[in-house]
Amino acid sequence: GTRVLIVGGGLAGVRTAVELRERGHEGPITLLGAEPHEPYDRPPLSKAVLLGEAEGDEPLVPTADLAAAGVTVLTGRRAVGLRPADREVDTGAGPLPWDRLVLATGADPLPLPGPAGGAPGSGDVHTLRTVEDARALRAVLEARRSLAIIGAGWIGAEVATAARRAGCPVTVLEAGSQPLAGTLPAEVAAPMRAWYAEIGADLRTDARVTGIGPDGVVLADGTAVAAGAVLVGIGARAATAWTAGSGLPLGEDGTVTVDSALRAGLPDIWAAGDCAAHPSARYGRRMAVQHWDDALRAAATVAAGVLGEPVEHDPVPYFWSEQFGRMLQWVGAPGPGDRLLYRGDPADPTRTVLWLDERDVPTAVLTVDRPRDLAQARRAVERRTPVDPDRAADPGVPLKAA
Ligand code: FAD
């Protein structure tokens, strides 16, 4: 039968394997993963695992189920080269053949740029992507060491929350002028500054880090921030460097350039999850979403394509984050001219913010502890149905089409 090789044992990889079997693929399926674990879930790594409430390596799909589905899982083995003409992937332990290849290698945390990258030995510097990373950081929390977090993004906010819960002194250094700079519009992100203060984390914005020394972090203005440990949370880059020289088209950010059905630019190769960027007809641009829900949906798209029934991958982006004791959920992508609509009092501790286009169609929604609003708004965003702004602004009225 047709041999499918999936490179990358994360969410996108394991879900592709499961979907292929469920949709009737009968040939061999091999799932290759560099980590010594079977695929596990990453979101708990910055939440429950840091607090010792979960171990973090619980398999995403029970081992017995993968075996029963006839999926060969090769762990602790890294792809190091791609030879498309020979239809082989090289690994440290020899080549693996394929008829259809799925790239699902995810992303690696970005190091600090330049000499500030923190030379080995210059302090206790962490990033957070794997279960080992999470356990190393957990040890810092258990020892209640002071923690400097570089980047007030999603990871920074979640780790700050856990570290304060564990009783660590926390300083968060953000190069932008507000938390989540570059991710959320200023109006919406600015109030989040207060959330850091609320838990007793010292958030310093416009703080440009120039180096990490043995005693902590050094800023461009010469200030030194003492810290027993440092977490760098400034984003992630697609883990595709191993395909260099293969002719596989990559974007400047390292993502695999796929088409709307997630086909990479070479025959019989697909890519899904954090390592890929797809063209969105919905948003008129290429998108590297790098969130859980997109990896899940992309796996289904790829499985359909591998089986010769290509479908379009153009979902409305969705993600959640648990920070400061709050559940944040986001759906959509606002356009440049869209206007903000607060549902209820913007000062409320729970809140829903909608972005409306010129026809009053919601293009994006952010909710804080309002899961019902999220579910209702998600439908409106997906279906592009206009809402009545006056009614949408009233939190007592369910969100639905005008
Ligand atoms: P990954 O999960 O990264 O899996 C890729 C796998 O491929 C890895 O195991 C890697 O080791 C392996 N690999 C890489 N290179 C090779 C190679 N050359 N050969 C073999 N194997 C290789 N999203 C949300 O929406 N909400 C959240 O709350 C949330 N929390 C998160 C918290 C953390 C700490 C992290 C790191 C991510 C979080 N995410 C969250 C994002 C979400 O987990 C990712 O979008 C998702 O894991 C992407 O799945 P993936 O399969 O594409 O990549």
Record the SSE blueprint.
Elements: E1 4-7, H1 11-22, E2 29-32, H2 63-68, E3 71-74, E4 79-83, E5 88-91, E6 94-97, E7 100-103, E8 107-109, E9 125-126, H3 131-142, E10 147-150, H4 154-165, E11 170-173, H5 186-189, H6 193-198, E12 202-204, E13 209-213, E14 216-219, E15 224-226, E16 229-232, E17 236-238, E18 256-257, E19 269-271, E20 276-280, E21 285-287, H7 292-306, E22 318-323, E23 326-332, E24 339-343, E25 351-356, E26 362-368, H8 371-383, H9 389-392
Parallel strand pairs: 1-2, 1-7, 2-3, 7-19, 9-16, 10-11, 10-16, 11-12, 18-20
Antiparallel strand pairs: 4-5, 5-6, 8-17, 13-14, 14-15, 20-21, 22-23, 23-26, 24-25, 25-26
Bound molecules: flavin-adenine dinucleotide.
Flavin-adenine dinucleotide is lined by residues 7-13, 32-35, 42-43, 45-46, 78-79, 104-107, 128-129, 155, 239, 242, 273-275, 290-293, 295, 319-321.
Overall description:
- The protein is an alpha/beta fold and 402 residues long.
- It folds into 3 domains: 4-108 and 236-306, FAD/NAD(P)-binding domain (3-Layer(bba) Sandwich), CATH 3.50.50.60; 114-232, FAD/NAD(P)-binding domain (3-Layer(bba) Sandwich), CATH 3.50.50; 325-392, Enolase-like, domain 1 (2-Layer Sandwich), CATH 3.30.390.
- Helices cover 21% and strands 27% of the residues.
- It has 9 helices and 26 strands.
- It has helices spanning 11-22, 63-68, 131-142, 154-165, 186-189, 193-198, 292-306, 371-383, 389-392; strands spanning 4-7, 29-32, 71-74, 79-83, 88-91, 94-97, 100-103, 107-109, 125-126, 147-150, 170-173, 202-204, 209-213, 216-219, 224-226, 229-232, 236-238, 256-257, 269-271, 276-280, 285-287, 318-323, 326-332, 339-343, 351-356, 362-368.
- The strands form 7 sheets. It has a 5-stranded parallel sheet. It has a 5-stranded parallel sheet with strand order 9-16-10-11-12. A 5-stranded antiparallel sheet has the order 22-23-26-25-24.
- Helix 1 runs parallel beside helix 7.
- The termini are far apart.
- The mean pLDDT is 94.
